[in-house]
Amino acid sequence: MASTLAFHIVFACVGMSLPWFMVVARWRELVTGDPIYARLSEAWSKGVAIFFAVGAVSGTVLSFQLGLLWPGFMLHAGPVIGMPFSLEGTAFFVEAIALGLFLYGRDRLRPRVHLACGVMVGVAGMASGILVIAANGWMNSPSGFTVGPEGFTDIDPVAAMLNDAWGVEALHMVLAALASTGFAAAGVHAMRLRARPQLRLHAVGMRIALMFGVVAALLQPLSGDLSAKSVAERQPLKLAAMESHFVTESGAGLWVGGIPDMKERTVNYGVQIPYALSFLAYADPHAEVRGLADFPEDEWPPVLVCHLAFQLMVMMGVGMAGVGVLFLGLRWKKPSWVEHPRFLAVVVAATPMGFIAVEAGWVVTEVGRQPWIIYGVMRTEEALTPMPGLWIPLAISLTVYVTLSALALAVFRRQVRAVEEGEPDHG
């Protein structure tokens, strides 16, 4: 299921974000009458369709895996968190219908109605992601039920969906989706612009995608600050693992880089910023931050994995923010330099940063909760299927995802080439 999630989360991010790119292009077309925006909105809408189709396949697989791989979890958790999953299904169908209308209604619907269909694709796609995050938030901050001898009782699905973790997780995920998709789309346009500098479509597309990605990347540290404070309150052990913070102390420092030494209970090869962890967790540089030693070792998550994944996520986020500051500076002082080959090379290099950060962040969220599948309530080992020979379905699923990736990439490349045919030069 981890491999399925790692594959699906890319398409989920694109489904939450790319529809807004095509909406902006369509809106600019209606405002300016410039045909370049028509070509761009049509191209992006086909990209949405490609990623929507592949994401639907992997999302369907996930729904089966929940029941087949985690029967102990679904037996108890199903009645509690069924509401966000059912609402997500509704959002999925609304998105599919609206996408169909947008794809085939350009010349059949009134322009404003056609634009409204695009907005519905964006709203439904964003809602799908946010509703799934509600279920994940519940796993990190369970609520809306009572645990008794007969299992989960006094179930309140609304309270479960509106759990304490949902808000900060959803905000962080939305910004991550916009940043990752924005930088990836901008990178593709920059790559093609370097190869064919005369194509105005790629210049316009890169600028729109970068605006989404840059704004999200610059807002993400604020969301990260809220997330850190939320984790410090709800899951102090996860925070300690993320930072390889072994001993409880006041005025705790924040590690930049480094590799945790589990034997010596320290961090090697890193640089520590004094008081920064206390400030990050509690907005007080002298606050006490609990260390790993305060908790039973059988409840520790894999510290090395959590620490390295967290560092990687932050590093990618800082990289995107740096590219964002450079982009805004160029737009302000030297607009023509935005299409300079050197800046295009920077944008191309930043293409995978967002999705690397997303994958690393998901590892922090999921691995950092271990050994609990429902934090403090049910251990992962209690929820897992007893079926032997899991390497067989794992091999099959990996083969399917590699094949799907290759097919999606081939179709996507063909679509990019098709869009470029007949494209007029700059000016």
List the main descriptive attributes of the protein structure presented here.
mainly alpha, 427 residues, 8 strands, two-stranded antiparallel sheet, globular, two-stranded antiparallel ribbon
List the helices and strands and how they pair.
Layout: H1 2-32, H2 35-69, H3 71-104, H4 111-140, E1 146-148, E2 151-153, H5 157-161, H6 166-195, H7 200-234, H8 236-242, E3 249-250, E4 254-261, E5 266-273, H9 276-282, E6 288-289, H10 303-333, H11 341-349, H12 353-367, E7 372-374, E8 378-379, H13 380-383, H14 391-420
Antiparallel strand pairs: 1-2, 3-6, 4-5, 7-8
Helix pairs in contact: 1-2, 1-4, 1-6, 2-3, 2-7, 2-14, 3-4, 4-6, 6-7, 6-11, 6-12, 7-8, 7-10, 10-12
Protein described:
- Helix content is 71%, strand content 7%.
- The protein has 14 helices and eight strands.
- The strands form four sheets. Strands 1-2 form a two-stranded antiparallel sheet.
- The mean pLDDT is 88.
